[in-house]
Structures
1.
Amino acid sequence: MKNFTYWNPTRIIFGRGTIAQLRDLIPQDEKILMTYGGGSIFKNGVYDQVKTALQTMSLQEFGGIEANPTYETLMKAVEIVKKEGITFLLAVGGGSVLDGTKFIAAASRFEGDDPWDILAKGAKVKSAISFGSVLTLPATGSEMNSGAVISRKSIQEKRDFGSPLTFPLFSILDPSSTFSLPTKQIRNGIVDTFIHTVEQYLTYPVATPLQDRQAEAILKTLVEEADMILSDPKDYDAMATFMWCATQALNGVLGCGVVQDWATHIIGHELTAFYGLDHAETLAIVYPALLRYKKKAKAEKLLQFGQRIFGINGLKRDDQIESAIEATETFFHHIGMPTRLQNYQIDAKEAAEKIRERFILRDNKIGEHKDIFPDDVKAILLAAA
Amino acid sequence: MKNFTYWNPTRIIFGRGTIAQLRDLIPQDEKILMTYGGGSIFKNGVYDQVKTALQTMSLQEFGGIEANPTYETLMKAVEIVKKEGITFLLAVGGGSVLDGTKFIAAASRFEGDDPWDILAKGAKVKSAISFGSVLTLPATGSEMNSGAVISRKSIQEKRDFGSPLTFPLFSILDPSSTFSLPTKQIRNGIVDTFIHTVEQYLTYPVATPLQDRQAEAILKTLVEEADMILSDPKDYDAMATFMWCATQALNGVLGCGVVQDWATHIIGHELTAFYGLDHAETLAIVYPALLRYKKKAKAEKLLQFGQRIFGINGLKRDDQIESAIEATETFFHHIGMPTRLQNYQIDAKEAAEKIRERFILRDNKIGEHKDIFPDDVKAILLAAA
């Protein structure tokens, strides 16, 4: 087991009717800016619940944070924060609103020239506005971690940052607020949660039997519950399980003491930056191709994963491994998620070359062995044609 | 799934050589009181590592906190805290030292007449001294929760308390500091961790498939790793896994959204109070008897537990259940833990009657259905003869 530190100060309030607790979670004298996305919170009733809970408090609004939240949009919120003397942010929505709000929190207090430096140059976050969240879309785990991914439209870049100062103070998770989610977003959330888990699990063994089983707990639950989650979006217990899986997959616990990969995320970000694919769609394309490309380095864990998650036993070693990868693809297809670039009419040769060039510029070496170089990225994307 | 809140602000620093980080974890101007137990920290080198890390700081010592820490001993530390103007406590040891330090932290700032009221009357903790810990004995999970169990010798009482103010600020877990533990303490720690887990799992189903698998992750790991843990106390990876299992079993995650039992703990405390048995020894006596007594109410979970932890399949329903209970006993025996009162020369009739009377006085109804009354406690203890 590797040395690690774990710290996660976010308070989780989970369950039916919990949005009303907002009034006790935010001090009465804060000037609040509520941030949200495209307006789904008007349809699912969450907007009204938040307004009712906070009716006696100073509450302004900033809507329109897009999926893959952009620097351009978020800087408008930063202006409002400064102009209006906002002291507390309340993110109401999914991972994009949460990620965007983390950036607003840090950028509003940034003392350098350009807050983009936080993302592009790793400039240190020395101060951030406090914030909480009301989660309406289980997927990214952003409700219980300190990380965020932000895009800059003008230069087609997608970058991440994180700071001990950008944990949500609290996150309210009421599964009933997910009942009106479109199937596509639920499907995306399942894949996102699945890939977050395997990025911290499907690498090579370093004597972490507990962490392995904790990761497998999430994977097995997702595979077993996916039909329930997708067939009835108003099944409270199924949505509660899905919501808690998504949070647990990326709150830091799975990463304790293990080796981590994250190559699929880093490559996937480029597919979103260039082609506008949903984050989860990019992961489902890259991951199976990456597993095949790295199947020797990941052999031990692929065998364990196949056996414990999909019950694959009794084949020859190579066949066990290939079956585990196939089972992953089959699971994605079963929940309606494509796994190939051609499914989006993307020319694989063009995409692979464009993204290879970007990796050359960045001098990135990725994967758990830091041995995935630009040419390997290209090969992986060509294999995902 | 039931509604829940989860909050755990303790920072975990885990791994080889991490005790040296103490100097960065405690502000330079604190007046520290280091608390410890019977002196094992002198043998395992931890005392020297702590002293070296904090050599430039104000550091006083309070040793002699016993297993099942007593109010009588701890109040002596409270006197020192007040007299010396101590501002930070550092618990160095196992769960008893940690629990005792939590009480010292709260009692030193208690404004009522007698800090025993915190335990006996549930008096609210309104302030507590900050504290951290260096853990040397994996077992109780106290290093990452806010609870403590304290005994009062003079009246043979054992009571618990907890407060949001009594989470450790940090806990350092260096598995190498466990290398000199006696086998008996390791065995106790495994059983303690096992029972903490099942108290939050082996009840009745409330649609929590993820939490079930998270609990099973710990149980399965303990069962699979126990021989490694016990056979070579200097096996770093085995001890690291054991240590992390113990922490994860009682840091609040397993309890999220589930039904909890805790009857075995409550009954077991009385066996310690009257007969001085180690905490884990009492759990191993009470639990199998309680499972048999409550096997109808726990049937669904007992079947799942037997199948997933011990691979019990293909029998008739009643036999599956009995086999799951037998497998638990066999596991305890395998690691050298007795499961009967007679193993300690305790007269079951006398013990059962004495403890029944105490439950009558307390008006306790315990177990996940709150349906274990004093007569049931007696019956369970008679069955554990």
2.
Amino acid sequence: MIEHLLEPRCVAVVGASRTPGKVGHEIVANLVSGGFEGTIVPVNPSAEDVLGLKCYPDLASFGGKVDLGVVAVPSPAVKAAVTDILNAGAGAVCVITAGFREVGQEGARMEQEIVELCRLRNARLLGPNCLGLINSRIRMNASFAKRMPSFGGISVISQSGALCTAILDWAAARHLGLAKVISMGNKADLAENDFLQAFAEDGDTTVIAAYLESIGSGKDFVKAAEAAASKKPVVILKAGTTLAGAKAASSHTGSLAGADIAYGAAFRRSGVIRAETFEALFDYATALAMQPLPKGNNVAIITNAGGPGIMAADAVEQAGMRVTPLATNVATALREKLPAAASVGNPIDVLGDADPVRYATALNAAQDDDSIDAIIVILTPQAMTRPAETARAIAGCLNGSKPVLVSFMGGEDVMPGREELVACNLPDYPAPERAVAALRAMCDYAAWRRRPERVVARFPVNRRKAERIILRHMRTGRLQMGEAPAKDIMRSYGFNVPDGAVAATCQDAVDVAIRIGFPVAMKIVSPDVIHKSDVGGVRLNLANPDAVRDAYDLMMLRIGRAAPEANLEGVYVEKMGERGREVILGMTRDPQFGPMLMFGLGGIFVEVMRDVTFHLAPITRDEALQMLRGTRSYKLLEGVRGQKSVDLDSLAASIQKLSQLATDFPEVQELDINPLIVGTVGTDPLVADARITLAGRRDNAWHGSH
Amino acid sequence: MIEHLLEPRCVAVVGASRTPGKVGHEIVANLVSGGFEGTIVPVNPSAEDVLGLKCYPDLASFGGKVDLGVVAVPSPAVKAAVTDILNAGAGAVCVITAGFREVGQEGARMEQEIVELCRLRNARLLGPNCLGLINSRIRMNASFAKRMPSFGGISVISQSGALCTAILDWAAARHLGLAKVISMGNKADLAENDFLQAFAEDGDTTVIAAYLESIGSGKDFVKAAEAAASKKPVVILKAGTTLAGAKAASSHTGSLAGADIAYGAAFRRSGVIRAETFEALFDYATALAMQPLPKGNNVAIITNAGGPGIMAADAVEQAGMRVTPLATNVATALREKLPAAASVGNPIDVLGDADPVRYATALNAAQDDDSIDAIIVILTPQAMTRPAETARAIAGCLNGSKPVLVSFMGGEDVMPGREELVACNLPDYPAPERAVAALRAMCDYAAWRRRPERVVARFPVNRRKAERIILRHMRTGRLQMGEAPAKDIMRSYGFNVPDGAVAATCQDAVDVAIRIGFPVAMKIVSPDVIHKSDVGGVRLNLANPDAVRDAYDLMMLRIGRAAPEANLEGVYVEKMGERGREVILGMTRDPQFGPMLMFGLGGIFVEVMRDVTFHLAPITRDEALQMLRGTRSYKLLEGVRGQKSVDLDSLAASIQKLSQLATDFPEVQELDINPLIVGTVGTDPLVADARITLAGRRDNAWHGSH
């Protein structure tokens, strides 16, 4: 039980040592010096006492009930230690010891043994190969990092123990409180999803900050992260973003996607605030822990120096927020209270000699003004400046209606002010730009919290038909599906596909053309021809039976010559479609997060400009519209130079239908609709070409999901 | 003389006061407590002595020669004070007092008077309305900021006095040395260009860091900045980037340009390193002051913690640099010296228990490896970590062959290490990403320093003809030039323009068409018709005389109906051109920096994607090629999907010719060649349409430049 890990009343340290510097010593020392409120039980057969605490040869000798056992013995002895702990009734084990999965197969086997031991006894395991954990409310430092943080609202999950030590050291220097700090180590059992879930429910935790290098199950992560983010902010720094190896992909969508894009889509989907840098992780977490969320993006800036005020204004505008002037009556009233040389525009310049009262006056005005959603206060240490009193004055007039972020710029002169700010729950940043970035993160999260309820529409489709086509194709053993069956699948999912059929002979082709009506297009059907146009395998605008006949014979003749070994199954004859805006819809299945949908404008926009957006399936209408708006070329969809807008709703519906298809059929590995032809409002987009690749391995698919 | 300002032997403080807190007191106190090596002369008719120094009623009473006079009297008394100072032989005056141009017209007039006084006596003026200045080598703190920095290589120029105080406070907390600190105030006389010039020559200054809100003369700035950047790094934070008001522009180029883009172009041109944030300003300056420039962008990362190593690697790749593995023999040799669990890949992981020797071993390996150009060293405070000794070990093995940047992550535990690092001239950053950003700035600057010599080619053109066309058009009083004369100008500058001529009658049009050969295009010629296509004023592909006749009559009829008031001068008949890739070349004249050239791919790439690059004229071939490569759509020029590359050289030459035209004729305010049709290698780009707007005011143009 994770409560035994996070809130134990009795902690045993197996491998407790009398030798300072040894991990088994440091953990006991940290528990003692941290002031742990519960019982500490050192275990070591060769010691009478450790740091004045009675030491037991094993937990059987102790006899009492243990909640959490911390293991710091050499790896070959870990299994016995865990058994001893479990026998003492512990619901949680934390294995500090390294030398498991991270060193090779034998280590992995030992790790698995420990996991099984715990599972059999319904106990949870943290680690192995971790730093331990801290719960500052109950003063438990069950780690070998010596700093005990003060109590505060941020809980930290880290996949790097070393980063925990840096964070603890850093937080101490800034007097920043932390609720819980978890070093996850090898994540043999407990992992990010467990802690997201636990911290979402944890009354002490107001913000969850995590450093992750990998995640276990993508789907569970999205679920846990969304549940947590719906209750409190979750800020994650995901490292390893660019090192994703190039993966072989047979579709545009697959070649444009990648692990980092998948993480981005998963974070967006689940309301996770992504920190791009280590500093951003705590810049954002601090603001979110200390201040209310903004209701909009209108920002007032209060400063005692022009330059930094301009810097802040630049940063606000570059971040897509607004430097909004005070309401006229508010500005007029404020002008009377400030010296003549002060500016009541935005930035509000309270002048270099501003005293604490002047700051408070300006802050009250901005706080009372409904046209302002957030306030940034800047202070530089000038001759008359009183940083500490100003900090107290700022804190004194806060009414909690909107976020106030502060930048006290400088060093030692402003340090007393900084300490006051932290004590008063005011997030402080060394430069205005960092305050603005934190505010931007707050705005994004607030917008996500205000999002409409997620409703994934289900369209009426002929799922059984699509299933039959897929099963039939799977029996061929080929992964790449031809245009005809791919289009049949699209048709069965309610897409508008031009009439067409495969013709095996010249006369067939003419018959098909006559049946569907001229003009028609003709495309070669062959599993051996990938780039149809390159070998003359595509003919457009065939207007009559003779043209069809000529095209058929020439196509067969020429491709037969160019690729004599190719198996030519016939041609696909289809009705020529209307013209319109070409877009690409795609889907690729991420190994972590499952189906990812892609949207982009066709041709060079995707291939050269890489102007595409991704979103996880299943998708809502709102999210599909966001995908459209997320491209740089969105204006083209809305119409430029007097062109009409395309039918954005039906385009969004196409994305939703693709989402439904991707969710229904795990055996579809990649899919490109390229192009989808989108017309003006009232028209139904047309699938001009479609390409489907099935999943290679059977186990990945089908029966599991049906 | 600026030397009198920066290196005075005798400083008079007029307005010296016995009252602590008064500016006139603080300046004397700062000079005294800073330990100024020269003579300090307090001047105040109502004091006998100030801080133990004899005080004079005026400088005549002092009798000696003064180099620099600092003025801290109320604004009405400033003029007399300046006169007194100049009479004492001072070559420089620093007016701290505010209440001049920044408060209105009367202030501006007083300011001008002081400027004139100084100019008459060949003296230079700093301020008014400034904080003063500091020269740390001679221990002169002639400012009312109380902190005297330690001596170091960075010189600071700031347009914000408050920012100076924040910088001084910040530098003190980081033990960072500064050479000179200048608060420029109103810049009535001395401004950024003077200090760029002075610091370029200053032996104490190794890096120039500036905060600017505006600049005086753009051209002089580019000259001064380029000269300075050719000798030492110049890092500038330019504030007010987004607040540039929308400006009415009649061309695409004009509407896409703006003050911030102009500054960007000017900085690129002159080798200035642009800092986007306040922290970046000193992050970059510190690295540049302390470490040699990298020869390339291959980066090695040394770390005692996996997570931060990955963060650094992510940042390196995102910044467009490379995480390069050590050479095989170097890696093999290193492996033997490190514990088995260490990694000699990149990042090089020296493990959590790394001692100083292990860091030094890894650093030596990376330093000796010719495949590595720069090194980032990361330390987290783990149980066995010794930050101070590690810092000394790192410093001890540096050979100065390549830059080493350090990130000691944490707070108090690593603080002793941080102080050692600064003392050893090692730039230290609180997070790896900031070290990487600083390294990126170093790489960019190093690349600029390695640039080929700037040679602006001059093409043989018919300048006199272009001049005649411009003069003739100016006499009409219209600013917008028609297509025919604009194309004549392009022709005279060696551009390939389709044959064509204006025809005033239907028969004229036919005659012109026959002379130049069919097919032809026809476009309405009217000063009152701006958007020709919108009113049916463009007809293409007219294949024979009848088609020309029909088109002429219909065009006159319809436009006559649609815009009865329009003055229709005739039609422009020209030969239809070849097809090719459409690009836009443009020019707009920035009020600060003069002619700015623009390049982008035609149509939506410019209008929707805003995928354009700018560069100042005059331009070199190398810079023109950079403009092409700077667009996101560059690949389209090189050819995608088997298309051939366009003739990049002749496209660059077109930009160079446009540059020459812009430089030759200041009366050309804006110019769009839209589109320029570019063909494959060996073809000459074709000017399909051109549009020229002349400068409105005469004084802005012509006679000054000829």
